[in-house]
Amino acid sequence: NGAELKEIHDVDLISNTPINNDILKYNSATSLWKNVQESARVIYKDLTSSAVLTGTTNISILKSCLIPANTVSVDDEIQITARAYRTTNTGVSTQYLYYNTTNSLTGATEIGIASGAASWVSIIRNLFIKSVTNSETSGGLNSGNSDGVILASTSIYSLNIDWTQDVYIIQAFQNAAVGNNTTSRGITIKRFR
Q: Does 156 score more than 80 pLDDT?
């Protein structure tokens, strides 16, 4: 009937029962291949362009993504990268990252903010999962460059995100002028273990 992977003498799939998305990793101390979870994994990626945001200077959702309950664990690090493009770039516009338990800005909590006058406005925010209900953000650096890449400039350091329930990460944008045309060009969320 053919050999199974767990029957190979230098593969240990007995000590840890394999779960979805495990990979094999070699341990030279034991001379065995063992299953482990990937240390870095994309848990959400949407690189399609959103609908055009125009005609308003209100903070509006460009994209939102659902992170299912228990996808994130204590001691994980989450890196959120969101990118927006303005075809008309009058004035300084602002991109926001929020989290919420619903797909809405109502009741949402800000994770990060980035402002810029460039056509491209990107935001990068790291969350360090300290407990299932406490996450810390990386420092408040604000380092724009010619491409408009900005590490989130808000100095929020502690967030009460409950990762045991579904969490929405929301990318929102505020145009500087009613005539601005802005689209989300993508959002990715990576988990590091």
A: no
